[in-house]
C-alpha cells in the first residue's frame, strides 16, 4: 500500500499520465491521476490543472507491504 502523500507529481509534457480530478485541501492539493486506465490518488504542493500531463514518483520509504 502507498499513501497518497508518498506519491509525488511533477509537470511533464512527455508523460501519458493525466490529472483527472483536483481538490484544494488548504496547504496542498489532492489529485486523481489516470495511469493507463488506473486511477491513483496523490497529493502535491505544486499547482496542477485537470487535463495536465504529469510524471509520478513514489517515496520508497512510504511503501507498506502486507503478508
UniProtKB/TrEMBL annotation:
Which Gene Ontology MF annotations are present? ATP binding; transmembrane transporter activity
Identify the residues that the record assigns to the Transport-associated OB type domain, covering every copy: 1-66
What are the GO cellular component annotations?
A: ATP-binding cassette (ABC) transporter complex
Q: Which InterPro entries does the record cross-reference, listed alphabetically? A: Mo/tungstate-bd_C_term_dom (IPR008995), Transp-assoc_OB_typ2 (IPR013611)
Keywords on record: ATP-binding, Cell membrane, Membrane, Nucleotide-binding
Protein name as annotated: Ferric iron ABC transporter ATP-binding protein
List the lineage, top down. Answer: Bacteria, Pseudomonadati, Pseudomonadota, Gammaproteobacteria, Vibrionales
Amino acid at each position: 500500500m502507498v499513501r497518497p502523500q508518498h506519491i509525488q507529481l511533477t509537470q511533464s509534457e512527455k508523460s501519458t499520465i493525466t490529472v483527472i480530478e483536483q481538490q484544494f485541501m488548504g496547504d496542498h492539493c489532492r489529485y486523481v491521476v489516470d495511469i493507463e486506465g488506473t486511477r491513483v490518488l496523490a497529493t502535491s504542493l505544486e499547482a496542477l490543472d485537470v487535463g495536465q500531463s504529469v510524471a509520478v514518483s513514489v517515496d520508497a520509504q512510504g511503501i507498506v507491504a502486507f503478508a
